[in-house]
Predict the 3D structure of the following.
Amino acid sequence: MRTITLRPLASHLVPIEAEGLTPDGLAKLSIEEMEALDLWLGNRRTRLCELFAIEVDGKPAPIEETTVILDGDFSRVKRIGERMSGGMIQSLGDLGMHAGAGMSGGNILIKGSAGDWLGREMRGGSIEVEGDAGNYVGSGYRGERCGMRGGSILVRGNAGVFLGEHICGGSIHVSGNAGDYPGAANGGGTISIGGDTHLPGAEMTKGSISVGGRTTVLPGFQFQDEVELEGLTYQRYVGDLVENGKGELLLALAQQSA
């Protein structure tokens, strides 16, 4: 087992691009090689050791046996965990935009909150956020036809707008509220929201969205019946009929009739 701990040397208003901070990128490097890694601070190229203190426990190890611990405020550090395939990233505080983008395996645990585009186009693995998440969680970036394709995302707080836009697979669960248009253009993924949201499933063709709180249903959804899930009664709709969609929208009956 190998544990690599990074601590910011200073706070920065300018974003840091750090797509190389993954178990894949660090597992087999010596500490000297880590120190020399290139990062971008805004439009200026710099080295990892100029921005972060590095502590390493253990010898080079396989990706699956490597844990990267981020100790401090990483809210201005973008693309951490991008395209990771295994291992573990633990953020003890907040994490910046695009965390876990395109990841295919491994686990990311964020004890604070996460920025926009969390898990963008991820294909596997898991992400857990103990705080809130920003906009476009599990979505596809501009011009992409599919967002999240596999894996799972759990947000224990609230999430922003366009949660799971263009999701094609995998699952997203938000324990709190979500912003407008969750599951827009859903093509096969599963989204569950414990709290309130607005206009879920616009243009969805496949997949499932469940809402435990209050919401507003688009006119392109057709009521089917009532179903029991985990002791709760849900109204089940099919749509979005604007797209000849056959997606499933489940709304907690107790909340909708209150």
User: Anything to note?
Assistant: The radius of gyration is 20 Å. The chain has a mean pLDDT of 94. The longest helix spans residues 31-35. The helical segments are 23-26, 31-35, 48-51, 253-256.
